[in-house]
């Protein structure tokens, strides 16, 4: 699995909580207000990854979509096409260059992510310590520290400007840092029928199990 795929799986669910926190200093109160009537979010991202010595190891960009409570689509345009689709039952990871699809049941990673806070505000306190991150680079920051020892990151910092998420920084236990800039946020967009559905294209290798519960359908143009 390429590093970009791993990053997307960790970050896509965090986008939901980031949008909630952007609307007020108290993410707990904001969560309940924002989740009222929330159906989905979408936008664009540009991403850089740095190793523990501060050397940049990855540049990428693309689009994302998130539908409450368990569906997301994370698609890379640059430097090469890659796609992750979580349909609510399974996670599909498609690499066109390798002609390969990986598929796994959806569940374990999502239970440790802020995605659950959309439908259960108490999940925020169960999973994270939330703190004011201060002001830096013209942004107001919120800091999330996972409570669990097996969390995929050691700290996440969310930077806001004008009530919208502008940047996110995430550091893992090995000191690798991921920085993402966001743009074009849309709340409750009209998603196409195929946004969160995926079927392996003919001729690609499929690693994992597929079955009726996977809700797999061909992608539509």
Structural account:
The chain contains five helices and twelve strands. It is of the alpha+beta class. It has a single domain, classed as outer membrane lipoprotein receptor (LolB), chain A.
Give the N-to-C terminal Cα separation.
Answer: 26 Å
Give the oligomer, counting copies of the same chain as homo and different chains as hetero.
single chain
CATH topology: outer membrane lipoprotein receptor (LolB), chain A
Give the overall silhouette: globular
Unreliable segments (pLDDT under 50, ≥5 consecutive)?
A: 114-119, 212-221
Report the mean per-residue pLDDT as an integer.
77
State the share of residues found in helices, binned by percent: 10-25%
CATH domain class name: Mainly Beta
CATH superfamily, by name, is Lipoprotein localisation LolA/LolB/LppX
Q: Helix and strand string, N-terminal first?
A: HHHEEEEEEHHEEEEEE
Main sheet attributes: strand count, strand direction, barrel closure: 12 strands, mixed
SS content category? alpha+beta
Number of helices: 5
How many runs of DSSP E, i.e. beta strands?
A: 12
Whole-number total of structural domains: 1
How much is the radius of gyration in Å? 17 Å
Strand content: 35-45%
The largest beta-sheet arranges its strands as: 7-8-9-10-11-1-2-3-4-5-6-12
The CATH architecture classification is Clam
């Amino acid at each position: 699995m390429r590093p970009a795929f791993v990053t997307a799986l960790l970050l896509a669910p965090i986008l939901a909580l980031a949008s909630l926190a952007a609307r007020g200093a108290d993410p707990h109160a904001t969560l309940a207000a924002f989740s009222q009537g929330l159906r989905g979010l979408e936008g664009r991202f540009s991403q850089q990854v740095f190793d523990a010595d501060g050397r940049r190891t990855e540049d990428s960009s693309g689009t994302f979509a998130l539908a409450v409570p368990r569906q997301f689509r994370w698609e890379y345009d640059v430097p090469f096409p890659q796609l992750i689709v979580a349909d609510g039952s399974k996670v599909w990871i498609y690499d066109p260059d390798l002609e390969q699809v990986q598929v796994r049941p959806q569940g374990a990673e999502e239970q440790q992510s802020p995605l659950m806070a959309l439908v259960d505000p108490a999940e925020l306190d169960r999973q994270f310590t939330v703190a004011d991150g201060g002001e830096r680079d013209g942004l107001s920051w919120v800091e999330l520290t996972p409570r669990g020892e097996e969390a995929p990151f050691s700290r996440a910092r969310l930077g806001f400007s004008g009530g919208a998420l502008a940047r996110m920084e995430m550091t893992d236990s090995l000191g690798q840092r991921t920085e993402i800039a966001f743009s074009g946020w849309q709340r409750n967009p009209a998603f196409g029928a195929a946004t969160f559905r995926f079927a392996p294209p003919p001729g690609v290798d499929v690693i994992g199990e597929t079955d009726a519960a996977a809700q797999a359908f061909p992608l539509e143009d």
